[in-house]
Amino acid sequence: MTYQEAEKKCKEAGQLHLLKFYEELDDEGKHRLIKEIELTDFDMIKRADGQEQERGKITPIKAMTREEIWENEDQYRKVGLEAIRKGEVAAVLLAGGMGTRLGSDNPKGMYDIGITKEVYIFQRLIENLMDVVRAADRYIHLFIMTSDKNHETTMDFFEEKECFGYKREYIHFFKQDMAPATDFDGKILLEKKDKLATSPNGNGGWFGSLYNSGLDFCIHEEGIKWLNVFAVDNVLQRMADPVFVGATIAGEYVSGSKVIRKVTPEEKVGTICLEDGRPSIVEYYELTDELKDAKDEKGEPAYNFGVILNYLFRVDALEQILTSPLTLHVVDKKIPCINEEGQEVHPETPNGHKYETLILDMVHLMENNLPFEIEREKEFAPIKNKTGVDSVESARELCKKNGIQL
Ligand code: UTP
């Protein structure tokens, strides 16, 4: 892209201020800035503005309960293990987040939750995946999504720890795409005179980023048909769980979600439901009193199951929605940037917007979804905060209850 083309693109999008310091830059800086302008999706900001906010008609979805799973567990496990043994199932670890609530400078997975020895979050996840590797007697491909902000640190950590005993050739790293950050008026902020302020584009970007990185070749070459996607921060997370995989395949679903029975209707997890007849997830803050109070035919809460960010998707179903736009979520954030005078600013309060897409919105694009109930105490120990709810402390307690030495 030439300077003139960049100027035209910026002008049309109302972002001409991005070129304010252009003349002060050396040749390398000029080249970098023009490249960034070329590669940045300006339309996204407009799209976020004009988005439809109305939701469709929400109705309950039927979950497969623990009792139903127990009745057919052996058969589901057999079907799941068969698919895993054929190499049809891979795992995708979402580790591109910033982990701001935990407040560590390092990627969240590098957090050590050990007490008497080192036990890193990444290590816990690999240990759990190894249970399946042993049961299936074959390694499972593991794709790890990082971001521009933590890619090298994450990769170096895995090398240093020798992948916690996992076979290196089955681990594939890829970077998620970045999105521009703006002030509250939608003007893109500059991080430096030659650099736009950007942030990871949210966990909904995982499949597009996986394909943009060229790993679709590996998926097809290896005959991978299912991707089990999960969050980094649940230290009891069970990936490629043969029973979950088997139940989804046996029921001829194109996707599945691990869900927990909510403790109260207000619990801060997304609730799985149907929206205009398709699977969908309503965030806890969107759940109306009417939905919270609704009961099913057994008198139990009709919207009783929350998602834990552990989804299974059929690859061909994902490929069909590869170019479908996901809802953009606009979040207020503290964004380090430079001001009009070119001086660095490190804001104490939010000074702008970050734009994210969320994986939970992908569920709504699926034809169907199996909500698969898990035992909360055995599989759900998220670490979001340093102390209190969903913290290192609460996760340690749950690890202990499950006989995991820390
Ligand atoms: P969270 O929504 O908890 O975000 O991510 P976070 O960035 O880790 O933490 P906070 O909100 O800043 O405290 C849920 C999962 O999605 C991944 C995270 O790494 C985590 O596994 N994620 C989130 C990404 O991979 N990319 C993103 O852009 C955002």
Topology, please?
Elements: H1 3-13, H2 27-39, H3 43-49, E1 58-59, H4 66-85, E2 89-94, H5 121-136, E3 142-146, H6 151-160, E4 171-175, E5 178-180, E6 182-183, E7 190-192, E8 195-196, E9 198-200, H7 206-212, H8 216-221, E10 226-231, H9 242-250, E11 255-261, E12 271-275, E13 278-282, H10 289-293, E14 305-314, H11 315-320, E15 329-333, E16 337-338, E17 344-345, E18 352-356, H12 360-363, E19 370-373, H13 376-379, H14 392-401
Parallel strand pairs: 2-3, 2-10, 3-4, 11-19
Antiparallel strand pairs: 1-12, 5-9, 6-18, 7-8, 10-14, 11-14, 12-13, 15-18, 16-17
Bound molecules: uridine 5'-triphosphate (UTP).
Give a verbal description of the structure.
By secondary structure, the protein is α+β, with helices and mostly antiparallel strands. A hairpin with a 2-residue loop joins strand 7 and strand 8. Helix 4 crosses helix 9. It starts with a helix and ends in a 5-residue tail after the last helix. The structure holds uridine 5'-triphosphate. The site of uridine 5'-triphosphate has 19 residues, from loops.
